[in-house]
Structures are given as C-alpha cells and as structure tokens.
Amino acid sequence: xxxxxxxxxxxxxxxxxxxxNLTGLGAGYFLLRRWVLAAVCLAATxxxxxxxxxxxxxGVPAGxxxxxxxxxxxxxxxxxxxxxxxxxxxxxxAMALGIVLLAVPAGGVVAYGAxxxxxxxxxxxxxxxxxxxxxxxxxxxxxxxxxxxDYTTAxxxxxxxxxxxxxxxxxxxxxxxxxAYYKAVAKPYTDKKDCEAIEPLTYLRTVPDKRMDRHVLxxxxxWPDKPLAASLYACGTGRLGTGAAGSxxxxxxxxxxxxxxxxxxxxxxxxxxxxxxxxDRSLAGAEPCxxxxxxxxxxxxxxxxxxxxGAGVAADVDKAVxxxxxxxxxxxxxxxxxxxxxxxxxxxxxxxxxSKHRARAEDIAIAAEIAGLRPAAGDHxxxxxxxxxxxxxxxxxxxxxxxxxxxxxGPVTGSVKLAACGSCTMYSSESAGRSKACKANRxxxxxxxxxxxxxxxxxxxxxxxxxxxxxDRAAGSEIRPGYSYTQCSYVVRGGGL
Length: 497
Known about the structure:
Strand order of the largest sheet: 3-2-5-6
Shape: elongated
Oligomer: single chain
Structural class: alpha+beta
Strand content: 5-15%
Order of helices and strands: HHHHHHHHHHHHHHHHHHEEEHEEEE
Radius of gyration: 50 Å
C-alpha cells in the first residue's frame, strides 16, 4: 500500500507549531502528537525551573540559559519543519494559541526578574545587618584600638552598599547606620572620657573621602572637629604637670596645630596660667615636691607649644619652681629624707644664688648631711637666726693626709675646710690615733670656730675624689660657757676617720 501523500506545505501550520514549542511546554509536539519529543521539552523546562527556583541574587548560570534557549530554538524549528507538511486542524487557532502561550515564559521571565531583585535586596540587607553586628561587637570592646578592625570592616561594607548598590533599600538605610556608627565610635566622648576619645575622634576625621564620600556622610563629615578639639583641650589640661606631654606639647600642642582658630585653642594660655597658680598654692601643702615636679612639667609643655603659645607663663613657672624647690627641701628634711633634702637644698643654693633663702638652704643642707650619719642632727630644722651672747672657741685640726671638711649644726650651723697635712700619715689603730693624733711637733692645718653654748652635732668628711676609701665620722658634743675646745681629725688605716 503506498504511503499517504504529504499535505502541501503550509507556512501558517509551521509558524503555529514553532510558536507553541517556543513556550517551553512542548505544545507544538503535542499538536503534532509527538509525545516523546513533547516530554523532552517539558523535562528540560522542569529542570530549568528546579535549578532556577527559588530565585537567587546571582540568578541562573549563563551556560544553562544558553543551552535551554538553544534547545527551544531547535524544538521550534523542528516542529515548524514537521508541521509544514502535516495536516492540522485550525492552524490559525493554533497560531493564536501559541502567541497567547508565549506570555507564559515572558511572564515567568518578568516574575523571575522581580524575584531575583527581591533576593538581591535581601542579600544586601543581610550585608547591612552583618555590618551593624560588627559595629555592635566593636562597641563592646574595652578600647577603640581593640575594636578598630571591626569598625573599619563595617565601614567598608557600608561604603560598598552606598557606592556599588546605590538605589537599593540597603543603600537607602546607610545614612542612618552611619549616624549610629559615629555615635558608637565616639562613645568615649559622650561618656566624658576625654583622653580615650582622642583616638576614635581622630579616626572619624579620616572617614570623609578616604573611606566614604562626603555626600553620603552629610553633616557627619565635619562633626568630629569640635568634639576632638574639646577632647584635646580637656585631656591636655588634665595632664598638665604629669610629664606626659613630650617634646611636641602633647594634646595641647596637637590642638594648637590642628585647630588653631578653635575656641579651645584660645583658652590654652589661660589654662596654663591657672595650672601654675594652682601648683603654686599647693607648695604650702603636704606635697610640695610633687607640686614642684608638676610645675616643671607645665613649663616643659609651655615651651613645646607652637607659635610661642606658652611663652607668657615661663616667668611664672620659673618663680614658682624656685619657691617649690626650697619648700620641697624643707619637706624632705621634716620627713627624715636627709639624703634627698641635702641634694635638693644644695642644688637650690647653687642655682638660685640671689635668693633670700640661699643661706638658710645651705644651713639645712649641712644639717641634713650630718643627719645622714647622726640622726639627732635632723630632729628639728636648724635655727633661722644666730643667738646672742658669748661665744666659745673651738679649734679643729687635721692630722690626716687628705683635706677634711668639718660640718656642724646646733644653735648655729656651718662648715670649715682644712687642707691636707702633707707630713701626716694614717694611724695603725683607733687607740693609736686617740693617743697620738695632733700631738707631734709639726704644724697641723687648723681652723677656729666661735660657737654659742649648746648641743652640737659634728661631721668630719674627707674629699671623695682623693680619699674615697676613708669613712666619714659624726659625733655629738656639748659646748659649755666659759670653755674652749679642740677637735683633731685623723685617719686610721683601714678606712676609719
């Protein structure tokens, strides 16, 4: 039996079948009763839907879309070829149906695009939440330095959202998040922790342009300036006298260099003068040495400030330090710190030669030096004046090979120096010294001291540079009216004086 003749080619049938297969439903093959091929088309569409849904921010891989589109094109051409010579009922209706069904994949593409946009928004909002969490984590740290890395990472994510995803919901929320970010970083400032606030506020001043565009920051771009100036001033004035300023003037130096026209910069000179006046008043208190050290520190800070901002307080500092050194030496003596008192007051006498307290400082320094070996010399300060009345003679001689200085304190305080006895030698023992010293037929270096009656403490000391191995010796003595006295200094082999 001969095969049925093919129907004459009909372009309407071909277009209808092709359009129906372009829907991805295999409808063209269903029209042609090609069930297996129709199933293949449906399976391909099902695989695409499984891989594409739910919509992800990255969408469907491009290779999969290209492959699926190629498959639909092949299926459409194949259905068109087959339908061109295959009789169909109502090909015009089939074409109309194909056109209508094309709305299904077109609508699916639109719906998928919207779903993908929503997924992208959710992803961006998730990134925003992650950045917020980093800010909270950083704010919980003890110091800004510990949380700085998290703050920096969070800011980079805010920048990415604002710059790379402008127009997104997340980008629209960034300005509010930046406001919270600035408040978190600047929390030490709001907590009145002025010195701790300097580092984070300085960091915030680097955010505009370098880390975030100014148009995104708005008024936040310049907000840190006033808080930083206030913190530098409060911290710097609070640290005056502590020695923390360094060679650049510390926080006050930074204030004057960074914000020279600020309100706080104009207050620096007055703050320095107030600090000097406060320490000056403290010199009469319980810790004059501490107050003096702080005055020196204030002077060092004032000297380090730019543009001679501290020049006006230099004279006040010098005057107060002079007063403080003297007060410190007296306080050290009263506290039985005799070595410190001797050095402080001796330095005072050497430094302030025109001071009205110089002679008094020298007397107390002598008493302090004696008290180092003879504590009774430090029971009270030496008298400020000399008593009247008769004076007894005390002749001191040197029977030693090196020079000797004799220090004394009692009703009066002073010292005399005796030259070395060139022909004298050391004695073999203490007893030999006591029996023979200053009794040979030779001329001993000597000095005469005229003393009012009273109890005295004496110290015989050798020059440290020539007789360092010889020990000094201190002793007490009573000077009575109507007598004259002698003392002999000698050296016992082995270091005794």
